Amino acid sequence: MDIQQLERISDSQWQIPAEGRMRVPAVLYAERSLIEAMDDKVREQLCNVACLPGIVQAAYAMPDAHWGYGFPIGGVAAFEPQTGVVSGGGVGFDISCGVRTLHTGLTLDQISAVQERLADRLLAHIPAGLGSTGRIHLTPRQMDEMLTGGARWAVAQGWGEAADLARTEENGCMPGADPGQVSQQARQRQKDEMGTLGSGNHYLEVQRVSEIFDADVARAFGIAAGDIKVSIHCGSRGLGHQIGTEFLREMALAAKSYGIDLPDRELACAPITSPLGQRYLGAMRAAINCALANREIITHLTREVFAELFPDCRLALLYDVSHNTCKEEVHTIDGQPRRLFVHRKGATRAFGPGHPALPTDLRAAGQPVIIGGTMGTASYILAGSETSMQRAFGSACHGAGRSMSRRQATRTWRGRELQAELAGRGIIIRSHSYRGIAEEAPGAYKDVAEVAESAERAGLARRVARLEPLVCIKG
Predict the structure, then answer these.
(1) Rounded to an integer, what distance in angstroms lies between the CA atom of residue 75 and that of residue 27?
(2) How many independent structural domains does the chain possess?
(3) C-beta of residue 373 within 8 angstroms of C-beta of residue 422
(4) Given this model, what pLDDT does residue 131 score?
(5) How far apart are CA 471 and CA 334, in angstroms?
(6) Burial class (CB in 10 A: 0-12, 13-18, 19+), 4
(7) CB-CB neighbours of 241 under 10 Å
(8) What pLDDT is recorded for position 264?
(9) What stretches in the chain show pLDDT beneath 50?
(10) CATH code, domain with 399
(11) CB atoms within 10 A of CB 323
(12) Is 190 among the domain residues?
């Protein structure tokens, strides 16, 4: 991106003033090097978002921002309930894709002694890959119950622990879900996919805490140097993708009838108060519950594997947070609390200390923000900050962010060679597809350390811990 086209606010904040059809400015949070590495399409898409009806304050891009469908991935925008819109492109196709991190209480020596066996058992026990199916087959009634109950439903079925719910965004269940708005095709795609990782950038990773940045918050989170953690990254699978596909098509066709002149067809949206907007919100919230249930079930399967090798290991949940959602939240604008519909696409909620939505035992420290890295680099745990509430509706980045397309990656790397190279570094990769490994090559992503540091400098969240991979299961 041409830095000369931006107005510098600080070393970590850049602005595109509102001009032409833009209703608000566009703001990018990142260091200069990350801004210059961004595709020009990010600037174009962010300016398009700033043109949408009812948008409040600004359209924001996180440090990991890159080109997406309509909205940039790493994009945040909030809308007025009465005059604003809800956008399928502002949520994305993998609705409620997110990450949860688990404590193990194990040591590096314990993991090293069974590292290969652990990797093999996780791959065998947790279905992964494109179109993967699991051992759970939902009846129509069970599908409705899952779409309404989320992780709470999974726990009630015996696939999880009640203690997990307090450490899950929305306490494990998104209110306002309307299973009646989920099509038969979406249901058909999902009925055999519960408890599956999927493909692409989704993963299950065993990690070692290699560095602590904030000792006080780390203690509050239950994190210490040398700890072994497990992180699970996945979403609503085929159901969420089908909902996104269907509603984006319907929104694009209906835009003119609502008086919306779209700057880009991929920004398809509908007024929040319209029947179409309300139907989408009901379906999207059902997909959020699907994702929450899916991660809870995968957690149960992961616990079963660890119990085989480490009978005393419990795998308590640190936190579960999504990064492809639209949430109705209250934020302070010009000193007044206002109810807004906040879109976060490839952006993580990052509520600051004291926020009532946070678990009581974590509230003083702020919300855990889980930043996924790559299978060859690192991931980060950050904490939400008060400045994030002021600067981006309590939002932060969600990962490293791609710097290269999957097609380019497969032309540059070979999966088998990458697997061997990483094994030489002590990182065991297991996947059903060498192509999938090549697509997710560490070199196809931005420097996650730079992204996490940039988020901290921008005041979006503060770094707490760095986690390095030991075992990574890919689709």
Answers:
(1) 10
(2) 1
(3) no
(4) 80
(5) 47
(6) exposed
(7) 20
(8) 93
(9) none
(10) 3.90.1860.10
(11) 30
(12) yes
Q: What's the CA gap between 383 and 355, in Å, rounded?
A: 12
In what order do the strands lie in the sheet containing 7-10? 7-10, 13-16, 26-29, 55-66, 73-79, 336-345, 324-333
Amino acid at 71: F
For residue 8, the model assigns a pLDDT of 96
pLDDT of residue 250: 98
- Select which of 233, 323, 398, 432 is catalytic: 398
Domain that includes residue 62, residue range: 3-403+445-474
Residue 306 lies in a domain: yes
Residues 367-386 have pLDDT tens digits of 999 999 999 999 999 999 98
Residue 321 lies in a domain: yes
Question: Any catalytic annotation for residue 125?
Answer: no
Is the distance from CB of 386 to CB of 350 less than 8 angstroms? Answer: no
Residue 77 lies in a domain: yes
The identity of residue 353, as a single letter, is P
For the chain, give the number of residues.
475
Q: What is the pTM of this model?
A: 0.97
Hunting for tokens 């599956």 — which residue is that? 196
| Nearest one of 48, 44, 17 to 261, comparing CA atoms | 48
Residues 6+ apart with CB under 8 A from 135: 195
Two structure tokens written together for 109: 């020596």
Q: Residue 225 and residue 9: Cα distance in Å, rounded?
A: 36
